[in-house]
Write a structure and sequence with these properties.
Order of helices and strands: HHHH
Strand content: under 5%
Structural class: mainly alpha
Low-confidence stretches: none
Shape: rod-shaped
Number of helices: 4
Number of strands: 0
Number of domains: 2
Largest sheet: none
Amino acid sequence: MAGRPTQTNQIVALRQRIERNRFHLERAVIDVRNRWDLPARVRGSMRHHPREWFFGSMGAGLMAALSFKRRRKHRREHGGQSPTRRGAVLAGTIGFLASVAKPMVRQWLTRRFLDRR
């Protein structure tokens, strides 16, 4: 009977070690899952830094609008804008506003649906 208490102590110590390892493995799996879940990281970033996302999307929209703008081959001699030019300005403005509003709408919808869970 002298060997039994040390054996039970070893079993208890082994169980404690297994529990500690299980906890550390759970933590490691959660960390890896969070690190590789790109949509969740983007949502979290948008939630924590909305101003940066807003101005970044505004800048990206402006850069895209300027890069896809067609160059005119000749200048008009008389002043004023043609109807097609006004339409192009209006379309560019609408496209710019859509690119600016898109991240804000996405964040609002994300918050709205996540609060329901």
